[in-house]
Amino acid sequence: MNMKKAGQIKIRKMIISDYSGVFVLWKNMPGIGLDKDCDSKKGIKDYLKRNPGLSFVACDGKKIVGTVLSGHDGRRGYLHHLAMVASYRKLGIGKELVECCLKGLARQNIPKCNIFLFKSNASGRSFWKHNGWNLRQDLSIMQKETRR
Ligand SMILES: CC(C)(COP(=O)(O)OP(=O)(O)OC[C@H]1O[C@@H](n2cnc3c(N)ncnc32)[C@H](O)[C@@H]1OP(=O)(O)O)[C@@H](O)C(=O)NCCC(=O)NCCS
Question: Against a cut of 0.85, is the pTM above it?
Answer without folding.
Answer: yes
